[in-house]
Amino acid sequence: MRITLLILFIIGGLSVLSSVSGRQHKTNSLQTKDTRMHNRTEERLEISFKFQRGGIASSQYAIWIENDEGQLVRTIYTTSFTAKGGYKYRKDAIPFWVSKANPKDMSSEQVDAITGATPRNGILIYQWDGTDEKGNHVPTGDYKLFIEGTLYWTSRVIYSGEFTWGNKELTSVPVKVQHFNQQPNNQNMITELKVCHFKN
Questions:
Q1: Per-residue pLDDT reduced to its tens digit, 87-103
Q2: 3-state DSSP of the chain
Q3: What is the pTM (predicted TM-score) of this model?
């Protein structure tokens, strides 16, 4: 009889523990969901595109924001090869960004903050939170996004789009495209580009 009661006690305790564990997992999931929903309501610019790497003398790109006077506000991302010195001997590697950002005057910490290795093939997503290079929030106003890609040697593409930071409606940002010295090599490096401005 005592053995039977002991077995029932153990089984009952395990059931309670299992039930508590399940509720805790569910609560964590809800908290994660709530956090994500909160993040989605904050104003941000989201850039996504399909990336296809090329071979030699290709696959370099940069993403940055300018104000309505054409001044660089922030570099969101650039490939490390160019920013860490490649611009010195590869004049055709994202030259528009190089002339704007002037990487030779950047500290190693500044370069590290905006660079990364050339990514693998796939969909890439980048976000801008409305801050400048020093982390200060930019004022409401008109801004422009640029994406420059070196496709193959002097063959380049530049995407650009204008948007207003600080207004209250969700918008898809229309993007213009310019080609320079267009060649068929690696022409699909950046495709399916989408830019969306999420508002609070």
A1: 999 999 999 999 999 99
A2: CHHHHHHHHHHHHHHHHHHHHHHHHHHHHHHHHHHHHHHHCCCEEEEEEEECCCCCCCCEEEEEEEECCCCEEEEEEEEHHHHCCHHHCCCCCCHHHHHHHCHHHCCHHHHHHHEECCCCCEEEEEEECCECCCCCECCCEEEEEEEEEEEECCEEEEEEEEEEECCCCCEECCCEEEEECCCCCCCCCEEEEEEEEECC
A3: 0.79
